[in-house]
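>> received
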Amino acid sequence: MANSSQNIVEDETSQEKTLSIYNLIMDGGLGGQIIIALLVVLLVVALYIYFERFFTIKAASKTDSNFMNKIRDYVIHGKLDAAKVLCAQVNSPASRLIEKGITRIGKPLADIHTAIENAGRLEIYKLEKNVSVLATIAGAAPMIGFLGTVIGMIVAIHEIANAGGQIDIKMLSDGLYTAMTTTVAGLVVGIISYVQYNHLVVRTNKVVYEMEAKSVEFLDLLNEPI
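>> returned
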């Protein structure tokens, strides 16, 4: 009989130690739930921006190794319309820069270079669209989580002040749950957003480098004696 009672106590103890994420959020009080909900929204926004930009940049990074050779042949033989058609078919940031340069052939080289630079800035702006939002989320999410920590500690201190010197851990649980769960959630969202942001920056830089390389190659082509 004593052994069965001991087993019941041990089972109750093990059950009390098991706590799901859902319970942590629901036991964190209204303030903690609001902050967790805000962090979830930020995480969804960050994931959407990341995957939308990732596939856009991936599509922009696809290049035809024979593209510039074809452009060279068309330009040398004066087939500028065919070169424009090829650029439109490839439809990449680099090809759009080359197409801009082709439309300026016959003008001074400085004007062609300026036109390509301006078009390049526009292409970079398109590639970096909304990426700065990821950086903002990466910085804001931990601070929002820390705000939940402060709110949770205020709640805990308030409960202590109202306890009349008799501190009950159960009374403090809501504030402590809010403090811990919001901190963890804020850090998780911040870390994910930070990694996503840096990955997109690296991918974007590769596309920009490709644009610059092809632009220089095109300008060198125009400088070649015919």
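>> The mean pLDDT is 79.
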